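U., I forgot to send this yesterday:
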Amino acid sequence: MDTLFWIFLPGFAAVTAGLLAWFIMQSRMEVALAGLREQLAESRGELRAEKAAMEGSLDTALHAAEEGARRQASTNS
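Result:
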């Protein structure tokens, strides 16, 4: 019985160490993934804000062009 214990103990220790290393690496990967998701969310927010600003300036430019065209049409008539 004592012999079986000394035969299986290193195997059990190796499996335990492997599982511990796997759990630690999973945790590190989840932390890294959370950081990347945070950066992605910030980038998406910046892009949305820039898109909204560009749409606003485009609407303003469009209205100004329409008003200029109206003035020019009324001047030509």
